[in-house]
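Hey team,

Filing this mostly as a record. A colleague (T.K.) asked me to run one chain through the structure pipeline before their review meeting, and I want the input and output archived in the tracker in case anyone asks later how it was produced. No errors, nothing strange. Just documentation.

Input sequence:
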Amino acid sequence: MASSHEFFSTADPDLVRSVIGQTLTGRGFTVETTPTAGFVAKRGSVPMTVLFGGLAGGKLYMSFTVEIMQLEGQVVARLSRVSVSAFATGGAIGAAKANNVFMDTANALGVALHEAGVLTSSRQVA
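Output structure:
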């Protein structure tokens, strides 16, 4: 299970940030900007996840962060999972579903950045 996915670009960081924010919002996440100009993306319901666990369906709570930084002349956007207890994520079923959503989200970000013409490469980070 990957815990992070990194996207590399030589484009303007604000353009990369905009594409990522729009993509996350379009996938049903509530996006909040962090003090470092990244994002916290949340989806689902904590109470529904606590009550129904991995069977909460579309209400299964999950939270990802996106850090956007400059490194060696490139913009790096790192999508990461937010670690919470197994109880809060719906146990093993919830963890598997959250992994699927994480991978789908990483793929969607890669496609959106590629279609915007700003993706130079990407990699999964363990």
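Quick notes for T.K.: Helices lie at 13-26, 46-52, 86-89, 91-115. The first strand starts at residue 4 and ends at 9.
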